[in-house]
Amino acid sequence: MAKVLMKGNEAIAEAAIKAGCRFFFGYPITPQNQIPEYMSKRMPQVGGCFLQAESEVSAINMVYGAAGAGARAMTSSSSPGISLKQEGISYAVGAELPLVVVNMVRGGPGLGSIQPAQSDYYQATRGGGHGDYRLPVFAPSSVQEAVELMATAFDVADKYRNPVMLLGDGMLGQIMEPVEMIQERSEPLPKKPWASGVPEKEGRSIINSLYINPDECEVHNYKLERKYQEITANEVRVQLIDTEGADILLVAYGTMARICQRAAKDAYKQLGLKVGLVRPITLWPYPYEALKNAAEQPSVKHVLSVEMSTGQMVDDVRLAVCGAKPVSFYGRTGGMVPTVKDILAKLSSIKEGM
Amino acid sequence: MAVVFKKTSMLTDVPFHYCPGCTHGIIHRLVAEVLEELGVGNDNIIGVAPVGCAVFAYNYFNCDMMEAAHGRAPAVATGIKRVHPDKLVFTYQGDGDLASIGAAEIVHAAARGEKITTIFVNNAIYGMTGGQMAPTSLPGQVTTTSPYGRDTSHCGYPVKVCEMLSQLDGPAYIQRVSVHDVKNVVAAKKAIRKAFEAQIAGKGFSLIEVLSTCPTNWGLPPQEALKWLEENMIPQFPLGVYKEI
Ligand SMILES: Cc1ncc(C[n+]2csc(CCOP(=O)(O)OP(=O)(O)O)c2C)c(N)n1
Ligand code: SF4
Fold first, then answer.
1. Would the N or C end of chain A have less CB density within 10 A of its end CB?
2. DSSP labels for A312-331?
3. Which of B23, B95, B97, B120 is the best mutation target for the ligand 1 pocket, counting ligand atoms within 8 Å of the beta carbon and taking the most?
């Protein structure tokens, strides 16, 4: 298929439709507005439904209803709106509903800024809402990868009956890149005999997250936990770029990883350093194993986590490296983006101390 | 032997957990009987349970059921109805659920003319959490969070849901009924039927507010609770049809 120039947000919306999503509920917030706008135009053309909800709280609950009714459904928002969706996400996890949430992260806390950030990492990977739960989090670093992961996100959600998050940032949403759009899904969508109102359902369908007896709630939570172990075993995704024999490892995800990739190249020319890049594609489950193995190579002297935050993923980097090598952090926050020059300066200071 | 009375097939055999004398049970039965009598079949009905004393409604109504977060039932029902426009979709909600935490959801479902039916059980108190003040608690009403009586100069006035929603263009049928005596129970059932018929006819949003008792948290024996409802709630929440198109 020929490549077309598309804005990240629009490409993601089109990819969701190609993946069989026919129900979108959302509420405007910058920098993801082109997703609902695109959906409002496209959904009627494909026999789907776009509905602008009265709030993010309502939007996620509409998705809950649609997913419980057996449909591929999604919502998208940006940081403040994602905070409001946490209640619904927690309920959807409890009721085991497959759905997809896109977060085009912006600077926070509070109203923050509308520029790109990665400061919702904790919220995305540690559950976000109340209760013992996890959700798979995909972090694409290009528009091309985003459209491909959109289909994966729906498939993983259906496979495990769990919400899935696509975590981008303002840059990914706004950037225009050539993209080869994914093919329209040709296989039928998976059967959902547990869903309400579907022809294939087996008896009375009850979608619920209430287990009033604590022993039953514990049984339910352990059932979820087993699912998370299965996801951890099967769904970790990571890209390793020039990590073999590297002096220093950069760890970065999403658009930040692209800037780091450039910095790694320049570091060799400018500083004579061999810098490898570990790019987690799934932030949960986190690629602990791959990062650990890369960091334990004798050549590696230092691991540097680079983020658009004050340091959140670096916690996972430390967990992975587990004291084997020094770990440091570099980041900008509030919508400011570390530049190649900034990263090179940090690498240079690490080199001096090596 | 001739069967003279049979429990409706739209209720399961699970025993209700409601307190003795609570009218939630009557309202469940009315809704279930109407659903059965409409003859659409239980595979064509999807209900949404609230957070409140009726939280276990998913165990009682013999159709597909979803449990929603507190106040969010109209949004959940919206998602369901958009996926299954041919199914009968209803929410069953208390006054805390609908008129307080879920005020936005119900207003916008009504404004959109969402083709769902809401059974709104107004007992002027938060039953499940132990009798706190509700958005519908009466002026002067003593509750566990208004121990000196609801002081309107401090925390305002009861929310009148039927009056408010009937100002919108989306609703097709809105009526307030009560279940404090046989005559009113019969009238309530008729109203519930009309509301579902409005949905079937595709006319728009429909809501029946049912004035209901909470003997436990009102601190009254069931009989006196029925009387208290009649004498105190009806003047504050007048019965009648508020919207019919
Ligand atoms: C987000 C959230 N806030 C608060 C509660 C606690 N809670 C449970 S039921 C309820 C009030 C229910 O009152 P009402 O809707 O009037 O129904 P009733 O129990 O009287 O039938 C509250 C506040 C909750 N479950 N979730
Ligand atoms: S607490 Fe009140 S509303 Fe709840 S079941 Fe008991 S009497 Fe009914």
1. N
2. STHHHHHHHHTTSS-EEEEE
3. B97
CATH superfamily of A4-234: Thiamin diphosphate (ThDP)-binding fold, Pyr/PP domains (3.40.50.970)
**Which has the closest alpha carbon to A286: A252, A246, A237?**
A237
Quote the ligand 2 centre to B133 CA distance (angstroms). 14
Nearest CA in chain A to B114: A51
Interhelix angle A56-68/B73-83, nearest 10 degrees: 50
Report yes or no: B68 at the A interface, CB cutoff 8 Å.
Answer: yes
Q: Is B104 on the interface with A (CB under 8 A)?
A: yes
Instruction: Please judge whether A206 and B65 are an interchain contact, meaning their C-beta atoms are less than 8 angstroms apart.
Output: yes
CA distance B120 to B161: 9
| Segments making up each domain of chain B, as ranges | 24-244
For position A127, what pLDDT does the model report? Answer: 83
Architecture of domain A240-353: 3-Layer(aba) Sandwich (3.40)
Write the ipTM. 0.97
- Nearest chain A residue to B77, by CA: A65
**Smallest Cα distance from B198 to chain A, Å:** 20
pLDDT tens readout for residues A210-261: 999 999 999 999 999 999 999 999 999 999 999 999 999 999 999 999 999 9
Delimit the CATH 3.40.50.970 region(s) of chain A.
Answer: 4-234
* Range B116-144 average pLDDT: 98
> Tokens 């022993």 appear where?
A215
pLDDT over threshold 80, residue A1:
no
Q: Where in chain A is the domain with CATH 3.40.50.920?
A: 240-353
B168: contact with A, CB 8 A cutoff: no
Calculate how close chain A gets to B50, using CA atoms only, in Å. Answer: 11
Domain covering B24-244 in this structure, CATH number: 3.40.50.970
Q: Do the chains contact at A58 and B48, CB–CB below 8 Å? A: no
Rounded average pLDDT over B174-186: 98
